[in-house]
Structures are given as structure tokens and as C-alpha cells.
Design a protein that fits this description.
mainly alpha, 9 helices
């Protein structure tokens, strides 16, 4: 069966409506391979993350019921589960993002797009994006820690300095969404620092349109992930209510059925969250493509290079 719709290019100037339309068209055309690979690769992370998250939240229930053991060992275990939950969240996001961009690169490269795509074809790009994504994540963590340290030091000198610093950091969150696709997809040979400064500069230049696209994409993502999270939160709230009514947390701790059910619902919730993040990834990718095409005229340069090779 031949493709009846034109290929959705990354580098193309689009208005707001065209960007959102491109997001839905890409998902409609490729939802099967996207769902297949992202669920398969994030499921192991979701299983570990669900276990750690439930252990941490379970201790929170006991704490609310004042039945938690406040010994040093128990508090350390709670902290470990919380830390492992955060680590699993970062690993899951890194895997999902790397896999998505590997599939996006294959879509742009193959005549068949994502039809019949195999892991053998995806693996080189996946591991390349995984390495670059890990480096970018460490880089952004260093930037964030350095910014917080400088802000704290200046706050000691000027007590209200944290207010404009916080406002500026929130404003920077919008241009930051351009950094990830810019670093992973850029083929101009820019260094990480050059890509970061370019993304921040152009992100502030197109701040309004970037904010609008991300707002809509995050709202759509939150709706899907919220639907997947309702059963898990329902069990959590029900256990809390039953524990309060029973006057203690023993009934919660000894219910194997509830523990297993909450674990499985947690896996579904986390997988749904990773899958729904496709909307955000597509939104920020097409916004980056819009900015890059408008600033650097990428497709014009490619057409000239292709003409020279004839």
C-alpha cells in the first residue's frame, strides 16, 4: 500500500495551527510503531519505577496515619525509594526520547517511512541519541545547579534577589524546550555549548509561539496521562480513606491484593505517561524545525547541495 499523504517535514515554516495539525497527522500515521516500541522499551523501567514509587507512597500513607516507623533505617529506605523513583523517571524519559528521535530520523530517511521498521534499523540512531541525550541531561543539570548556587549566594547579599532570579528561571523554561531537538537533530557540527546558546537566543526570540505550542501540547499530554493515572490514584485514595477509618495502616500493609493491583496500575500509569509524551516531543520538534527553517533556511541549503551534486 502506497503512502497517500505527503511526508511531514521537520524543517518547515508553520503557523500555530499547522504545527498542531502536523503533530496529530504524524501520530495518526505512525501510532502503531510508536506505541509498539515505546511501550516495549519503557515497560521494564516502568515496572521498576512503579515498585519504587509504590513503596515510597505506601510509607507516605503510613506517615499520614502516624503509624510509620521513624527509625533511621526506615527513613533512609524511604529516601532511597524516592531517589530510585527519580532516577527511573530520568532513565525512562531518556529512553523514550532517544527512541522517538531514532524513529523520527528513520521516518525522514526511509521511503517507506516507519512502515515495517525493525530494531536493526533503529538501533544505531537510538544509541547515538541515547549518548547525546545523556550528555545533554548532565550538562543541563550542571547549568541548573550552578544557577541555583549563584542565586543562593546573591540572595545572601540582596535578600529579594531570589524573586527576579525565579522569574528569569521560569522564563528560561520555554527556550529550554528547543535545546533537546536542536542538539539531537542538528547536523551543522555545533558544539553542545553553541547549540545551547543558539537555542536560548532563538527560543527567547520566538518565546511567544514556543510557549503557545508547548502549552497546548502539555495540556493534551496531561489529559492522556491523567486518564491513565486515575485508577492508580483511585486505589491510593481509597487505601488512605480505609486506613483512616480503620484507625491504622495495618490493613493497608497486609493487603497483598491491593499491593499487587496498585503496582500493576502504576505500571499502566507510567507507560501511559511515557507514551503521551510523544505529543510534547513532536510539538517541540516542529517548533524547532520552524525556528531553524526561518532563521537558517535549512531546506534551501539542502536543495542547493542536491542541485550541485547532479
Amino acid at each position: 500500500m502506497e503512502n497517500v499523504s505527503p511526508k511531514i517535514n521537520i524543517y518547515q515554516q508553520r503557523d500555530f495551527g499547522a504545527k498542531i495539525t502536523a503533530v496529530f497527522e504524524f501520530i495518526r500515521e505512525n501510532w502503531k510503531p510508536l506505541l509498539k516500541y515505546i511501550v516495549a522499551f519503557t515497560l521494564p523501567v516502568s515496572i521498576v519505577q512503579s515498585f519504587c514509587m509504590n513503596m515510597y507512597m505506601q510509607s507516605s500513607v503510613f506517615d499520614a496515619l502516624e503509624t510509620v516507623d521513624t527509625s533511621t533505617g526506615t527513613l533512609m529506605a524511604t529516601g532511597v525509594y524516592y531517589g530510585l523513583t527519580l532516577i527511573c523517571s530520568m532513565v525512562g524519559a531518556l529512553v523514550a526520547y532517544s527512541l522517538f528521535y531514532a524513529m523520527l530520523a528513520a521516518y525522514d530517511r526511509r521511503e517507506e517511512r516507519l512502515r515495517g521498521i525493525t530494531w536493526k534499523e533503529l538501533s544505531p540512531d537510538f544509541f547515538r541519541f541515547l549518548r547525546r541525550g545523556f550528555v545533554l541531561m548532565l550538562f543541563l543539570c550542571v547549568i541548573l545547579i550552578g544557577y541555583c548556587v549563584v542565586t543562593a549566594m546573591l540572595t545572601f547579599i540582596v535578600s529579594f534577589f531570589w524573586i527576579p532570579a525565579l522569574v528569569f528561571m521560569l522564563a528560561c523554561c520555554v527556550p529550554l524546550v528547543v535545546v533537546y531537538p536542536a542538539y539531537l537533530l542538528d547536523d551543522s557540527g555545533r558544539s553542545l555549548w553553541d547549540t545551547f546558546t543558539w537555542s536560548m537566543r532563538q527560543g527567547f526570540r520566538f518565546w511567544g509561539s514556543t510557549f503557545l505550542v508547548m502549552l497546548v501540547c502539555y495540556l493534551l499530554t496531561s489529559i492522556v496521562s491523567g486518564v491513565c493515572a486515575v485508577p492508580w490514584y483511585g486505589i491510593y485514595i481509597a487505601r488512605l480513606i480505609v486506613g483512616v477509618s480503620a484507625g491504622g495502616g495495618a490493613i493497608l500493609d497486609n493487603s497483598v491484593l491491593l499491593n499487587v493491583l496498585q503496582f500493576l496500575l502504576g505500571v499502566i500509569m507510567l507507560c501511559g505517561t511515557y507514551v503521551s509524551s510523544i505529543v510534547v516531543m513532536l510539538g517541540m520538534t516542529y517548533q524547532y524545525g520552524h525556528i531553524r527553517e526561518k532563521v537558517d533556511a535549512v531546506t534551501v541549503d539542502k536543495d542547493i547541495n542536491n542541485f550541485d551534486q547532479l
